[in-house]
Specification:
Helix content: 40-55%
Number of helices: 48
Structural class: alpha/beta
Distance between the termini: 76 Å
Mean pLDDT: 95
Length: about 950
Amino acid sequence: MSETITSSILNTLDNELDGELHFSDLIKRLYATDASVYRMLPLAVSYPKSYKDIKKLITFASKYKTSLIPRTAGTSLAGQCVGNGIVVDVSKHFNKVLDFDKEAQTVTVQPGVVRDELNNYLKPFGLFFGPNTSTSNRCMIGGMVGNNSSGTTSIKYGVTRDKVIKLKTILSDGSEVTFNKLSKEALINKSQLNTLEGKIYRTICSEVFTEDTKQEIQNNFPKQEIHRRNTGYAVDELINNNEAFNLCKLLAGSEGTLAFTTEITLKLDKLPPKESIMVAAHFNSITDCLKAVQPTMLHNLFTCEMMDKTILDCTKNNKTQAENRQFIQGDPQAILMCEIKGEDPADVQEQANKLIKTLEETGLSYANFSLQNKDIHKANELRKAGLGLLGNIIGDKKAVACIEDTAVALPDLANYISEFSALMKSYKQDAVYYAHAGAGELHLRPILNLKKEEDIILFRKITTDVAALVKKYNGSFSGEHGDGIVRAEFIKFMIGDKNYNLLKKIKYCFDPKNIFNPGKIVDALPMDKNLRYTSNREEPNINTILDFSSSQGILREAEKCNGSGDCRKLPEFGGTMCPSYRATRDEKDTTRARANALREYLTHSEKANKFNHKELKQVFDLCLSCKACASECPSSVDVTALKAEFQYQYLKENGVSLRTRIFAYNNKLNSVGSKFSWFTNFIFSNSLTSLILKKSFSIAQERSLPLISSKSLNKEFQLFKNKDFIKTPIKTVFLFNDEFTNYLDTEIGVDAITLLHALNYNVKVINNKESGRAFISKGLLKQAKKVANDNVEIYKDIISEKTPLIGIEPSAILTFRDEYLKLADNKLSAKKIATHTYLIEEFLSNEIAIGNIKSSQFSQEIKTIKFHGHCHQKSQSNQIHSFNILNLPKNYKVTIIPSGCCGMAGSFGYEKEHFKISMQIGNQTLFPAVKKAATNTIIAANGTSCRHQIKDGTGKKASHPISILKNALA
């Protein structure tokens, strides 16, 4: 990179682009890493909007001797997306489906189209794009072409290279060239062009298609029966292709090193058969599992995937995956998941029976379970989460990607793994084994601490030894993840000097100035340099208010993020994470970005208070503290806790604004306001006075302000105490009187007490403190800690299995199960209380399950209900509990809106600068579902913020499930 590239020059380039060019410290740090072990600060990051932008970037790179690193979702495992040039992120603007031909079964897309998004578009036409990576709900077609991705379905549908029929590209001289199938005559004509395109065809024809070269390729490239082959440029595909000549075969898997792709035309397949059974075979050893692969592959399988005990154990500590692993029996060392499909259920069942019989005859598996319908989806989600789950390994030792992409011919697999295991044993390594057993490829990972020099040495040694082992079996060192930085260094060894020199000739014919993603495939960067962590560094000592000891400190909590990018999935793929990214489509607003930014500044800051950076304030600004990351991120990175701690530390240096204090101390203000509720409500609801109030504190003018209840729940409960006395209650429960129910939603609290009494439960409400939710969300952690300690002291001797604590507002009651464990000084008592603390729907759902509450106690009326669950319920509990209690009345028809976050998030949606984003999030799924509901449909929502958002966003009133159930009492 030339030192002459100043900020002034970059500003000039930015002004010339239709899109954007960013070179702030924050953005460069966010793009310094991908999902690999590498870190390189780029010169800048561009979001091009047009082909003209890309041409200008190419011209700039050529003039100033810098480089362009193409990037889509940034989930590359080998370091393909890092470099010190300009990262060109096409995910934001190059994300359109350009053409679709149903009859020809082809589709043309821009590189930023998400794989699963494309298949949702194609599904109504009975077609789909077959290659299916574990990152399919956020990975993009451009990245899949760059890496020649394959995934679980390759044994049936092939790899990305098999599907690419045309590529529109921009070459290193700025010329637009389309590569597609050419007849011999067309190839001759192309070769005669006096252009870079013509030179490329002449070079390929003269260098690749000599008899000596073809023989050299056949002798040294991986075996042809290995369909997952990504070793260097695919010249072996060119010489073995019986079809018309097509350079797309070469460009697929070239990792953006030859040309910049702008449009991709793909061949599609018909949708797989609808009927499906997955046989999950359980094994007591990895050896037994791999021995079973060959006999199982004699069956007509659509997928054949393996997971080992290391990954299976990681699933236990992740809420989402713990639910997905229910099919696992015992404690297997490995499982093999084999999927069979067909149109006839009886035929599929017969195929499954034959497969199970084969497995039983081998005597290798100890259990073989058949999964169907949703259970298959859960099992597939469990396997997909494998990569991210490895981030759950606590501490500095991690399962490292370096030898994780080897592929051998299926008959060689068992012997190869046997030798591999012996090799790992010689290094005293317990490696991780998972993924595509049926394709002869396992994602094998050593567990290393790349912060230590001795393990970096092992990193190279193990990679070198495994490369030799793969070569012995004439396998592919990269099956689907690409060469990148981690494997490119070994390409010459794998294919020989002559073949490697051929690859270099191809590279420098396409790209003579080496501007396209240098250091990948040829002239490789060292695989053990430019690592994410500096070796043998002194670990920063960072004191925090929140207790991060379960992750060995806040820095290691942030370091759990391995870049798998699950937080980039879009609303249509379900879940909640990450609401801000879904609204902005900016990497800066992902969970990954927040963890990466915190890691960067805590590691590299020279300040005494390492949190005191405006860049961190910027990256956390749009975090809604929804907690989805804690349950949906496979690595369980708790960004909500990271944000709370950051805010506390940042405010220590920069002070607390008046607006922040008002939101944080809203309980005290509501207490005062409740004494004159009629006057307070007049101020809040009058158009003039409320406008003055909103303008004074930068509250969005479009927002309605919440009204104060005329009587607090504490006062209402005193009336109850003097009324009905239950002589023989089923149970005694303590109702946590949270600050929102006490002053804003008193009627819901009254409904809860009425309902519980009617169902024969003795209810106690004591003089507890507020939950501290507002303090936590605003970073006033000292105040939150005091509240937590006070509440633990209040409840420590009275909450038990027989006398549980239940609460109405999810964000309040669930602090006992989450933040109090990180805040309270009395950890033992806090844990005991947490064990017996329930959201009220959760408590009632459990009581229904054991027969204490029956449908006969409720109305026979017919009603339709649509339910939206609070984010903290989704993360810390389960929406199914609200669903269960709303379904208790016999004729109530209940559906859960797949809505993610509502967008309000406490004070977030009130704040002027956040209002637009708040409404964008609500408009993704929630508002349309509510607006589309029939007028007599009841909208239910258990979060006070959610109900307010629904009111402001749709004009409709949402009721708490408890109020609905109370009104349904017989």
